[in-house]
């Protein structure tokens, strides 16, 4: 806690004035460009690796960057994630939703262990809010992962996109660069796009292509950021060699 308090003092003496000026500029007319879902992992600092500033994004964080499917929330049983979608995309008319997973995700590593029936038992879930959260809301991700474990990771997966008729194919780590848990993390990141599109209050905008969903994936060991390209059917490193092609794809399909 002492480190945090001293950090606040450094902020007061260094960047506070410039940040207050940014707040002043966007106070009456903020124009955020994205709702950004990511993990609560302390190594994930999305505003830093996207070089975004005050007023640019709504950031929603939880264990495993999950967006629970709408069928879990009936009547008054809602949680922060769909409320964030409504605040961002309905109240503030944001046009882009981004889900960003990452390597060595502790929540996803735990999800991988939930393949063990004893570890995932109801008794153990009752004792662990994290296990319960993952077992409830990341089960579909685990099902897709287990399909590839059984049939081979060279096989493609199919995900629903903005509408039930608009689907995309994904090959997970075709170069076999990442740990087995990281493959699960990439599957889980893509599954959240399908979950986002399950919410009825987004349906009209999604059908009219006025609202778009994207997936990023961050490798914490190399600092590389990957964009899921529907054209290339895989996560592609965002770099000097790929940025123009990725930008063209985004402009063509999501402008």
Summarize the structure.
This protein is α/β, with parallel strands linked by helices. It has eleven helices and eight strands.
Description:
The chain contains 11 helices and 8 strands. By secondary structure, it is α/β, with parallel strands linked by helices. The strands form 2 sheets. It has a 6-stranded mixed beta sheet, sandwiched between helices. A two-stranded antiparallel ribbon has the order 4-5. The model has no long low-confidence stretch (mean pLDDT 92).
Going by helix content, strand content and strand pairing, the class is alpha/beta
| SSE series | HHEHEHEHHHHEEHHEEEH
Q: What is the 3D shape?
A: globular
Q: Major sheet, described briefly?
A: 6 strands, mixed
Strand residues, percent: 15-25%
N-to-C span: 44 Å
- Provide the gyration radius in Å: 19 Å
Average pLDDT number: 92
Low-confidence stretches: none
Number of strands: 8
User: What fraction, in percent, of the residue positions are helical?
Assistant: 40-55%
* Total count of helical runs of at least 4 residues: 11
Question: How are strands sequenced across the largest beta sheet?
Answer: 2-1-3-6-7-8
List the topology elements.
Layout: H1 2-13, H2 16-26, E1 34-39, H3 46-49, E2 57-62, H4 80-91, E3 96-102, H5 106-113, H6 122-127, H7 129-137, H8 139-151, E4 157-160, E5 167-170, H9 180-196, H10 203-207, E6 212-218, E7 225-229, E8 234-237, H11 243-254
Helix pairs in contact: 5-7, 8-9
Please supply descriptive tags for the structure shown above.
alpha/beta; two-stranded antiparallel ribbon; six-stranded mixed β-sheet; 255 residues; 11 helices
């Amino acid at each position: 806690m002492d480190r945090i308090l001293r950090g606040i003092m450094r902020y007061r003496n260094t960047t506070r004035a410039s940040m207050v000026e940014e707040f002043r500029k966007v106070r009456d007319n903020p124009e955020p460009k994205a709702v950004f879902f990511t993990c609560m992992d302390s190594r994930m600092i999305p505003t830093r690796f996207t070089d975004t500033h005050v007023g640019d994004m709504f950031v929603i964080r939880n264990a495993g960057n999950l967006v629970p499917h709408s069928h879990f929330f009936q009547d008054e049983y809602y949680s922060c994630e769909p409320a964030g979608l409504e605040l961002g995309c309905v109240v503030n008319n944001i046009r882009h939703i981004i889900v960003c997973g990452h390597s060595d995700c502790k929540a996803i590593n735990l999800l991988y262990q939930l393949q063990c029936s004893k570890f995932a038992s109801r008794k153990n879930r009752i004792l662990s809010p994290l296990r319960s959260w993952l077992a409830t809301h990341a089960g579909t991700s685990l099902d897709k992962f287990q399909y590839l474990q059984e049939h081979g990771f060279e096989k493609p997966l199919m995900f629903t996109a903005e509408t039930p008729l608009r689907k995309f194919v994904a090959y997970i780590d075709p170069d076999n660069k990442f740990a087995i848990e990281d493959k699960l993390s990439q599957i889980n990141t893509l599954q959240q796009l399908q979950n986002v599109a399950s919410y009825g209050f987004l349906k009209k905008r999604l059908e009219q292509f006025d609202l778009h969903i994207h997936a990023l994936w961050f490798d914490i060991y190399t600092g590389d950021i990957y964009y899921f390209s529907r054209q290339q059917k895989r996560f592609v490193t965002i770099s000097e060699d790929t940025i123009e092609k990725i930008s063209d794809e985004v402009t063509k399909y999501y402008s």
